[in-house]
Specification:
Largest sheet: 5 strands, mixed
CATH superfamily of the largest domain: Fructose-1,6-Bisphosphatase, subunit A, domain 1
Distance between the termini: 47 Å
Keywords: Hydrolase
Strand order of the largest sheet: 1-2-3-4-5
Radius of gyration: 17 Å
Structural class: alpha/beta
InterPro entries: CysQ/Inositol_MonoPase, Inositol_monophosphatase-like
Low-confidence stretches: none
CATH topology of the largest domain: Fructose-1,6-Bisphosphatase, Chain A, domain 1
Helix content: 25-40%
Enzyme class: hydrolase
GO molecular function: 3'(2'),5'-bisphosphate nucleotidase activity
Mean pLDDT: 94
Strand content: 15-25%
Number of strands: 12
Organism: Qipengyuania benthica
Length: about 240
């Protein structure tokens, strides 16, 4: 099984595990999010160790070690991205399986389990035609000031949504044209989404246009831009013009 197929299968099965726990109705609220995260993470860590024993691993739900820093190939995963949405019974949560090679997100699979969908870097879909008015996906509760300023600058509509993976895949699926995040993330929040988005021909970078670099010692990833390629130059220019 090649890396792309492995990533997709892992994302799918981890999502099924999380859904089964939610659908059981035995747990609710914060405890449900914790249980889904733990079960999906346990499955993923064991599966990666079995199928790719020589690769490194960074997971949101496992203690980080320095072992991965000496590896060229490192899997970066988020077993349940959007535990709040997952716990509330919503559909805008995701499972992230990313593989970095030399610090670059090369392969990714993002499952949207509640929609029975897995987006893959090895099976890009054609981007649908963009509407006349661009749409920016933002946090349901904490839309970043930069996104609000961008919407005003370019006349975009705001689309509130849950997890980072759901937002990124909304751009991939043509439900929005821009995902701009400035509130601070970690590598597991965007590694797989970045790989999938780039494979679909979208612009993917930091807010200053710099490339995303993974498997760094510091797991933080302060900002992110995923957008339609034809909008990238204008969006980056508008970001640069925003007051610090």
């Amino acid at each position: 099984m090649d890396d792309s197929e492995l990533a997709a299968q892992l994302a799918h099965h981890a999502g099924r595990i999380a859904l089964a726990i939610r659908d059981s109705g035995l747990i609710a609220g914060r405890a449900l999010g914790d249980a889904g995260d733990e079960a999906a993470n346990r499955f993923l860590c064991r599966a990666i160790a079995q199928h790719r024993p020589d690769d490194g691993l960074l997971s949101e739900e496992s203690a980080d070690t320095e072992t991965r820093l000496g590896k060229d190939r490192v899997w970066i995963i988020d077993p349940v991205d959007g535990t709040r949405e997952y716990g509330e019974g919503r559909s805008d949560w995701a499972v992230h399986i990313g593989l970095t090679i030399g610090g670059v997100a090369r392969i990714g699979a993002v499952a949207l389990p509640a929609l029975d969908l897995v987006l893959r870097s090895d099976r890009p879909l054609a981007l649908p035609a963009a509407p006349a008015t661009p749409r920016i996906v933002v946090s349901r509760s904490r839309p970043p000031a930069q996104a609000l300023a961008m919407a005003e600058a370019i006349g975009a509509d705001l689309v509130p949504m849950g997890s980072a993976g759901a937002k990124a895949m909304a751009v991939v699926r043509g439900e929005a044209e821009i995902y701009l995040h400035a509130g601070g993330q970690h590598q597991w929040d965007n590694c797989a989404p970045a790989a999938v988005a780039a494979a679909h021909g979208l612009h993917v970078s930091r807010l200053d246009g710099a490339p995303l670099v993974y498997n760094a010692r510091d797991t933080s990833m302060p900002d992110l831009l995923i957008c339609r390629p034809e909008l990238a130059e204008r969006v980056l220019a508008e970001i640069a013009a925003l007051p610090c």
